[in-house]
Amino acid sequence: xxxxxxxxxxxxxxxxxxxxxxxxxxxxxxxxxxxxxxxxxxxxxxxxxxxxxxxxxxxxxxxxxxxxxxxxxxxxxxxxxxxxxxxxxxxxxxxxxxxxxxxxxxxxxxxxx
Amino acid sequence: xxxxxxxxxxxxxxxxxxxxxxxxxxxxxxxxxxxxxxxxxxxxxxxxxxxxxxxxxxxxxxxxxxxxxxxxxxxxxxxxxxxxxxxxxxxxxxxxxxxxxxxxxxxxxxxxx
Lengths: 113, 113
What we know:
The complex is a heterodimer of chains A (about 110) and B (about 110). Chain A contains no helices and 11 strands. Chain A has strands at about 5, 10-15, 20-25, 30-40, 40-50, 55, 65-70, 75-80, 85-95, 105, 110. The termini of chain A are far apart. Chain B is an all-beta fold. In chain B, strand 10 (about 85-95) and strand 11 form a beta hairpin. The mean pLDDT of chain B is about 90. The chains are: A mainly beta (about 110), B mainly beta (about 110). Chains A and B meet through strand 5, strand 9 and strand 10 of A and strand 6, strand 10 and strand 11 of B.
């Protein structure tokens, strides 16, 4: 158990809908990272938050947004969902802002139908 | 451009045999290098990392990796594979400027009895 909790584990929704994925980092970790893992794109970095502020941005679509709350949990919002958004979404956390050692959650599997 | 190449999509080894998983990277600055393992339905677990110093790094579960700057490689090795090592292995490269870590496509390891 990495100490990173993601909910829900599975999500099935229709195209055009909006969903929210939640991540609770390890106790004391200030950085949260979001990743998307799909068969065709592999593991792609989406975005990083450090202590409530956006720190780094990767290949995140404009339809996607994230935030980190004062209690350090984070949410990833995916809107206007398309079939191609079906993937495994991972959250990771680390104590520092550089990600020298990140701990991954078990992921949320999103299926868009 | 920054990239990570894992030339082998899958590898099959016999239990008790030695293992080497290949990783080549392209990175402009001094890289931080990681190996992660992902078991089915699980998140990624850090096996080992290289930042600086001794180019041979030891990790968990009996794994080690050697950084060879001249070859831009960071190959993962294990002297004797166990059936429980069957999983997908990801090599990654990044820096401490933000966790824009780039992951390789992964190598799936199969272990036969």
